[in-house]
Specification:
Strand content: 25-35%
CATH topology of the largest domain: PH-domain like
Number of helices: 4
Number of domains: 2
Shape: globular
Mean pLDDT: 78
CATH superfamily of the largest domain: Pleckstrin-homology domain (PH domain)/Phosphotyrosine-binding domain (PTB)
Distance between the termini: 48 Å
Strand order of the largest sheet: 1-2-3-4
Radius of gyration: 17 Å
Number of strands: 7
Amino acid sequence: MEKQEGAIEIPDAVKNILRPDEQVVTAVRQSGLKALITPDSIIVTDQRIIRYAPSALGLRKTIEDYRYEDMANFRVKKGIMFATIVIRQRFMSDDLVLDNLPKNKMDIISKAVNEGIMRAKSGEIPQAATSQPASGLQSEDPLKLLKLRLAKGEITKEEYEDTKRLLE
């Protein structure tokens, strides 16, 4: 893949979690004017969005993984210099908000997110890229899947309880 103009270097911690068949579409960093010390990096792939959030002057790192099959839709807010993308999550109560992003990258990000959501809705995302376990759990009851998502840390205890009440 060619390095795009203004693209950032992908952190090693993110490179280590990329799947062999996963292609990075673009990688951007929050504006240094808005997030001075440790801005987040947003890595958009053909299968998911990854937020790399360093803290404590880079001594700690949080990596968040958002799969297209869990996204419902999105909207983009463009300001004079920066932009924000807000993605509605299907299984979480909070929207994914990626703010203080370079405005000139929003067209690339928007196109990749839109294509990813459409592929996920049509079932075109490869099985290896989906969040469903290969052990056959996808045919088991939803409550077991919900418990598995809680155990993996994909949902909070509150989201678990809310969804459990809906299922029962």
